[in-house]
Amino acid sequence: MSRLLYLIVFVCALSPLFAQQTPLFTQYRSNYTVINPAMLSPQYLLEDQNLDFGVSLRTQWTNLDDNPRTQLAQGNFFYANTGVSILSGGYIIRDRVGPTSTTGAYGKIGGVLSDDPYWGGIAMGLSIGIQQFRIDASQLVLRQEGDFLGQQDQSKIAPDVGFGFYYYKRFEKGWFADDIVYAGLSVPQVLGLNVAFTEGDSDFNIRRQQHVNLIAGYYLFLDNDRFIEPSIWLRYVANAPVSLDINFRYQVNRSIYFGFGGSLAQTFHFETGFVIGDQLRLGYGFDFPFNTIGPVGRATHEINLNFALER
């Protein structure tokens, strides 16, 4: 099965790539920095915790050999102030699918316009980084013996820029008092550069496409500790189907939550998490596809660990 997966990846690399190129997450709210550099941490909205660090490990279609895997480490700081508040942070991420992998390092900077950031604001954010694209030649299934890709490992480095907007508001009065609504729009890979591998008469390009992400959600508080959070994550890239995830999370108390949802890609999502000492959060996400990949690839697992505090 691994040889089939490699062949699929290799064929995609040899032609213009118009599919989803940016990372996917089951618990996308926990990995917000990668998706939208202007997005505020859920820990700030819920607990006023403006400094957080996190790691995420995701393995997709676990029944396949050398299946897609993603590792992420991130850190964020929000300096809240009347007038203009400052967003800062960064992350390191690695994506691997069979013989191909990308490794990126990014920093982000942004600002929030608000009279009082506790009650809401409008944010803009920018991420700047570099990505290394790598092909492990020893694992390739070649269409033609002697192809240069099969002779040695290939590696290219390219710049990357992302941009985003984000809006959030905490209601002060009435039936919806203390509830929070949020929405963000972002465009990763703004530059849309091509990554070209060339040697002799052989060459191929990976055409990097601009993606559009929309994340929106609502915190409906039942009391001080319990809330329901419906949310959506919509993704669009040219010449590919629109992707939409819909999820519902229920915070049972200050220590535990669970959620479920699905996507237009015919995938079921489940998530659960635990809060230890108000600062340490451990989350687990599970996906199972009911499309054609389901019987072959099976489930996806994702683990997130986050530490947050107020500074």
Describe the structure.
It is a single chain. With 311 residues, this protein is mainly β. It has one domain. It is built from 4 helices and 16 strands. The protein has a 14-stranded antiparallel β-barrel. The longest helix has 13 residues, at 2-14. It is globular and about 60 Å long. Mean pLDDT is 85; it is low at 1-19.
- Overall geometry comes to globular
Radius of gyration, rounded? 20 Å
Distance between the termini: 50 Å
Q: What can be said about the biggest beta sheet?
A: 14 strands, antiparallel, barrel
Task: Give the helix level as a range of percent.
Answer: under 10%
What can be said about this structure in brief?
This protein is 9% helix and 55% strand. The chain has four helices and 16 strands.
